[in-house]
Amino acid sequence: MKPELLLKRPVYAPLQEVLEREFTVHKPWTTPDPQAYVRQSCENVRAAVTTTSIGFSGAEFEALPRLEIVANFGPYLTLVDLNAAKERGVAVTSTPDSTAEPVADLAMGLIVAVMRRLCEADRFVRAGKWPAGVFDSGREVRGKTCGIVGFGRIGREIALRAASFGMAVCYHGPRVKDGVAYPYFDDLEALAHRSDVLVVACPSTPATRNLVDARILEALGPAGYLVNIARGAIVDEQALIAALAGGQIAGAALDVFRDEPHVPAALMAMDNVVLAPHIGTSTREIREERSRKLLASLRAHFAGEPLRHAVSRDE
Known about the structure:
The protein is α/β, with parallel strands linked by helices. It has helices at residues 13-22, 34-41, 58-63, 82-88, 100-116, 118-126, 153-164, 188-194, 214-220, 237-245, 265-268, 284-302, and strands at 4-7, 24-26, 45-51, 69-73, 91-93, 145-149, 168-172, 184-185, 197-200, 225-228, 251-254, 273-275. It is built from 12 helices and 12 strands. The model has no long low-confidence stretch (mean pLDDT 95).
């Protein structure tokens, strides 16, 4: 008999196909009342698969009395209650991988898209407007200054790409980074004033919530662009909408939102905003790597072998 597994949300389709071959998979999101379904139908669930963005709460551990392992599709366990897992003796695994490069690729693509007005140009052509008129020009990327908020692995990769496009690079963070030659600004407002494009690449913490607010957007100025590939909560979304509507900044390119997947209608109505559905790490290569690691962990557990990519509460 196949072990029963709770799948909290749809995942990469090829992975889900394998899970459904090797396990009896419960899919509560397909039911009218997912919580009631878990209580009534998941008593014998021994494994659960979740994702970085939805995690696994203490209440969910309590609702599954026979749970043995939680496998996270993604490297980050911020939303998994590791204390509850430890108390109940449930193993937790993740899928460590390198996401800095593809996220930086997206950031550079968004910079080019918003400055060269690529999405607007696409809509212009599709609407049949080209034969009747000339599309308004965008701005060159070369020669502009890219200010990066947060200079960890992703920030450094963005800097490499921006520099290769002929941009000047400067950065802001809690401290100067050793061995980094780019100019450092300890004051974010000063960095925004200096930048043509401000790229948000820092972690979301209580200290960075609404870090990019009306004051920073005003400093960025009417010729400046905001790009956010970090987390929606870092940018004051209402202040951003007001700045865009009032012409205080030239445009924005956003891969993340405060209440995603819900995007404010005001942003969707603006031509000078490029919108993406949080796809920074959404590449086939990353999905396949995570699938291999997640399946390896589940198979090892049910074969009684040492777990791969296990995470402890202390870690």
